[in-house]
Specification:
Mean pLDDT: 90
Helix content: 40-55%
Number of strands: 4
Structural class: mainly alpha
Distance between the termini: 44 Å
Strand order of the largest sheet: 1-2
Order of helices and strands: HHEEHHEHEHHH
Largest sheet: 2 strands, antiparallel
Strand content: 5-15%
Length: 186
């Protein structure tokens, strides 16, 4: 049932947000010269997939977990995208393709070994990664891998239609801070 909701809501989201996606892509083109950011992430059953987002950092920024990224790499337009969570909109395509869900654990990088081990031990990789979830709404990010893995497992153990809809509504109305970057130089 949740997969059916993913398909329906992501298709509607892509159709309704189509004009906004185009405007943001054009603005991103002027901002960084390359509006989309693609990165290999860990998916369901630990299979790799290519996550798509709007670029929020300079194209020459290091490809590291967001909490390890230097804040000076984030562009002014990128700060706006992160604050409004609009940088996540292209992931609706990942959801429609079946690589992600609207609600699930945020997909990590293959280099985040501690998080991967924790998630693997707790069965988190049995589910599709998501655009939003309990950890993001409680501002738990990848800088605390054990807490994140435990929160993801707790969310998945009780995830039903009610929580699925509640997490989406909370995200759309602005709960959670999105990905945080370090302050200062790295």
């Amino acid at each position: 049932m949740l997969r059916l909701l993913d398909i329906l809501l992501s298709a509607i989201g892509l159709l309704v947000a189509g004009p906004l996606l185009l405007v943001l892509a054009i603005a991103g083109l002027f901002d960084t010269g390359s509006p989309l950011f693609r990165q290999t992430r860990v998916g369901r059953n630990k299979k790799p997939f290519t996550l798509v987002k709007f670029r929020t950092m300079r194209p020459d920024a290091a490809h590291v977990a967001t909490h390890l990224a230097d804040a000076s790499a984030v562009t002014a337009f990128g700060k706006f995208l992160r604050r409004t969570k609009l940088d996540e909109l292209p992931q609706l395509w990942n959801v429609l393709k079946g690589e992600m869900s609207l609600v699930g654990p945020r997909p990590c990088l293959f280099s985040q070994e501690e998080l991967i081990e924790g998630r693997d031990r707790l069965g988190v990789f049995d589910a599709r990664p998501g655009i939003t979830g309990l950890a993001q709404l409680n501002e738990i990010d990848m800088s605390t891998p054990q807490l994140l893995a435990e929160t993801d497992a707790r969310m998945l153990a009780s995830l039903g239609i009610k929580d699925y809809c509640r997490y989406i509504l909370m995200t759309v109305t602005g709960k959670g801070s999105g990905d945080r970057v370090r302050n200062g130089k790295g």
